Protein: DNA polymerase beta superfamily protein
Organism: Streptosporangium amethystogenes subsp. fukuiense
Amino acid sequence: MEVRYVPDHSVLSVVVGSRAYGLENEDSDVDRRGVFVAPTRLFWRLAKPPTHVEGPLPEQFSWEVERFCALALEANPTVLECLWSPIVEHATAAGEELLSIRGAFVSGRAGQTFVGYANAQFRRLDPERPRWKQAMHMVRLLLSGLHLVRHGEPLVRMDAHRDRLLAVRRGELSWDEVDRWRSELTARFDGTGTLPAEPDRRRVEEYLASTREAAL
């Protein structure tokens, strides 16, 4: 019998992307990310449950809870921003608890991961033929990461920066202006700020163990 991990075992579903950032237009997709908890007994088999599932809705992607926690502990920008999305479409008790411990995933390594990911993407862009939407999202990622380093949580809604970011997407800023903005933001990552040196792995493992036990 086929196991429908999503939506049958989903504990959290949020909207990410332009609609969560406040940068959408009439053509923007609805990008959904989520977390599911595979029934614990399935891990006793030789064939293990998947670490992630795509769909069933368009632009929907979900992680199994253990994989999600591991990525969040590594300060993966995409995963961390899921925990602070302003648009939560579905959350069970396990999903609500995951949101309640989101601060346990945050550590000083977040600055490196956000900057590293953004700058790697920038290096792949061709200044002669830039993909402006991608350039906008890389600047947005730096803004989000800088807020995380300084205030303990990523900045998801970009209301204060909306006009300038949209100008980047429309190609109204020159490549030199965008690259200068990127450089200025990168230079402001001057330490861990308010973040602890390491995430609270013990708290996360306690959550994972209790979630596994509840799924027996």
Observations:
- The chain has two domains: 10-104+199-214, 109-187.
